[in-house]
């Protein structure tokens, strides 16, 4: 069928559906254009008159018409040539026929012409035309080539019961049709197809007919299945190569699962496969007929596919559906691979695992794989990949992976440049698959929105929803670089949820043209962007345009904050959205007060007046930082000059030292002050033109906001300059004070630290700091102190928060001007360039890091939100007082208790409770006093009565549920503290045999204390008793879990197992053997000397063996695994030094040699004679320990994975080893102590990858549990180790010589 034959049957609607421009169908109908032929002479002017104004849509329509008509003319020229005349097909009689006898194959005449020759397939070239002996072409006289055989093999003969009689070749073809291949037209149809059908007919293969396998048919099965990841199918219709089919051969059928969708007939190995073995485009199917018993054939331009159903009903259903699907215009698939309209990128790609390349086509939101370009042109492929579940990433110079949930396709391109093009094309396909163009089409309905607001690139698919501009993909990337505080970038096609009807109307109302009348009112021609501008130019332009506001049209009220806010409140009540945009981005505060109680904000005011578009614009700018106002006019195309802020302030004389006393009103002088052109100036009066003094923004290093009423004027602030001068200003007007602070801060804070300006800071300024990654040079950081949180903006990093009350340590070195902050084991060094502002920072941070009041949330906290005072007391009592008789019932000495309370309230983190220095009864009394004097109480004054009521509930399950409900209502600090305290009391009562404090006794003590009552309410004690008794259920923990405060307590011995050497230690889940060793040594004040190797040992008394734990090994799992006859012991590892020397001298990590091997007999109580041990040859490598009968043996007798082995040392007497050097890993005996050390050292080296002992010694690992990381977010920090004196020395060395800190001895 030629192009000209198809063209009249194609409607304009079908054609526009292919182009995805079906919205213009009504315009074509109104113009009287119903078919594609009537549109062939359309011009751009005619399209314009029809209402098709978008240039991109016009180009797409005209390009399609040009290609269609050029192909048609080419086919008409081809049609003028003489067509080949094929000879009547040769028919064979089937040997398997049941209705007629087999007969030899004979030709009708002896000189009959040969059948037409199939096209020659040449890679990357179009197929040659068919030739015939009747054709005058000389090539018709040449014999068939091997390619002819290949094509013949692909179409085996079809035999039916009626084949013995005369029949047409259409109904019972005997070989694949070999008509001249038709060039598929470039026209598509959007005709709908039936729903997907799941069937399992076979695909034809050469063989005997008796081997045919019937297939089930399920025409109504769903197209979607739960599918596992299958392998990539081989090429479609794989047939063995060989000569043309000969008589007496029939067909083999293979069972296949077949699906029919709107565009393709696909067949799979089974119904679980995702990717097909072959696909047949329904656009190329020319005929579907029934042939023979239960068979039907699907005929394309030059191939025939034969299927066999399981029943006649199934076959009829399939034939009917396929005929309906292919009736009429055949070449009409919306993803027709032969169409020049659908393909986005195509070419050959090599698929890893296959020897040949596959022709790959990226079309819209799919990727198609074909055996070669000829199959692509014929519409017969291998499989298609849906890109909505795909992901593309580069792998090497020419390779890339297409990853789906079902398999990974690893492609190799022909060059690196082509790989980049393939990756871009497939990523575009993914975007297309995930996109929805509905919003984009609505936004583009405004003509100016069809061009990028920044570079005028066509069809922009992104938008900054708070700036109200539509931008292209490249400009959107630069908008993201501004951060969400400036530009909130969203996709028109993928972020469907954000595009409310109101937001769409805002973009349609404003449009890029009107919005740019504000944003780009003063763009110099030399700085304007084009679609070809580079990334650097885009970044510079977009930063100037939106962050700096360089090109905007200044509002007449610019610089007058109060008038801007007033104008905003008035304007949101009307429909002028552009005016609102201008006000907001010229400095109006969207969160300003309207002065009306009913509608306190501009947003509520807009909603009250039903201005939904105004409300939408304001809502997207509530958390947006206004465009940076540098308090000066742009240098180019600027509006008339205007000060950013001015007014009267009261000022004292500048000072060279910190202000320690209160300044009375009489010490202040009234001055006219201005912030203009980056300079803060103050005048004698507003009539004077010459300032009394001025501070450039670059000279201001710190701005401090004083507490109200600190000085004579109620509201004051301090300015610190580079020249070590302090300026104090004040006013009684809180609004004026706020505006001055904001304006001055904006004048000297850089753009990179602008988020700090949104905070209600008490102090803001510039400091230098050093971190763990670079000790040689200091970084400039911008810091803001807000309450007890220090916000930091360092160079090339995002904002970081340091919670000062959660610091592990805070030290100030005034001599060296270094401020050291340690949080979770991570340290930040802040340097003071100037003593004046540095001392102010130190005092402010120190005050913020201390306890701020008498409530729990105002205390110094641990990482887990437990007050440090509670955590320290619980830890000390757990270690030293669990066995103390009458604990918490006995009272301490009042003077010592009061001194402890004062020290804890002054700085809880600096006080370390130590055995011998502090008494248990003093600590317990101090803890009880802390809870009794706590503001709001532990249970909060609001919910305390509810806890008491819950304690009166009789039903236990209801009581526990009510307790859990109340627990979840507590603030996080109260909840964490309550859990830690109850967990501690739970541990105390488990030692009640020693301390005489059972549940009832503890409840009597802590009931009135925690509820702050007089003790008369029995429910208070009952509540505490219930909390302790049902602790594991209420807090949902296990007995062995490791929640804050510790749930597992064990006894550890020092050097030998005796009562005087035992220590009770809390074992958290993260504690390592090295940390346990350090804790015991610290508790006994044992100093580790240079060549001493203290270690934690697992000792089994019953087995008479011991095992040194690796220093990184977790202790808690060991405690769970050992029995009651085992214990942990801290002692020196005397052989460690020799082992380290041996490992340092080894070149190879493996070891081999002879040892004696034996296993303990299974009958308990029987001894073992020395004759049971046998000499064996062992090889120890990185994977396993292998035992051979002798050195020359090839096959090992035993093989043990090294990583799973536990190695013990010792002498088990009942085993009766032949030597005293017993190496217990299945009982291995060595001849000497040194040999046993070498084997054991090799085991440890392999199991822990050479990390046998910490490089800096076990003492240096004491902080690893407390300090798990060496980075504070993105601020790199240095962990401090050692004593306080060592830390101070390292800080001093740091300020003098940064390189000295990197030496191990300092840290």
From TrEMBL:
Q: Which CDD domains match?
A: ArfGap_ARAP, PH3_ARAP, RhoGAP_ARAP
Specify the Arf-GAP domain's residue ranges: 437-562
- Stretches of Basic and acidic residues bias are at 71-91, 147-156
What name appears for this protein in its UniProt entry? ArfGAP with RhoGAP domain, ankyrin repeat and PH domain 1
Under InterPro entries, the record lists: Arf-Rho-GAP_ANK-PH_domain, ARFGAP/RecO, ArfGAP_dom, ArfGAP_dom_sf, PH-like_dom_sf, PH_domain, RA_dom, Rho_GTPase_activation_prot
Q: Where is the signal peptide?
A: none
MF (Gene Ontology): GTPase activator activity; phosphatidylinositol-3,4,5-trisphosphate binding; zinc ion binding
Domain named SAM: residues: 11-71
GO annotation, biological process: regulation of cell shape; signal transduction
GO cellular component, alphabetical, reads: cytoplasm
- Compartments (UniProt record): Cytoplasm
Where in the numbering of this chain does the Ras-associating domain appear?
1046-1135
Please give the superkingdom of this protein's source.
Answer: Eukaryota
Q: Name one Pfam family in it.
A: PH
List, as start-end ranges, the regions of compositional bias called Polar residues. Answer: 215-227
Q: Where is the composition biased (Pro residues)?
A: 113-126
- Indicate the segments forming the PH domain, all copies: 253-327, 342-431, 642-749
Q: Which gene encodes it?
A: LOC117741308
Keywords (alphabetical) are: Cytoplasm, GTPase activation, Metal-binding, Phosphoprotein, Repeat, Zinc, Zinc-finger
- Matches recorded under Gene3D superfamilies: Arf GTPase activating protein, Phosphatidylinositol 3-kinase Catalytic Subunit, Chain A, domain 1, Pleckstrin-homology domain (PH domain)/Phosphotyrosine-binding domain (PTB), Rho GTPase activation protein, Transcription Factor, Ets-1
From start to end residue, where is composition biased (Low complexity)?
Answer: 131-146, 165-181
The Rho-GAP domain extends over 859-1035
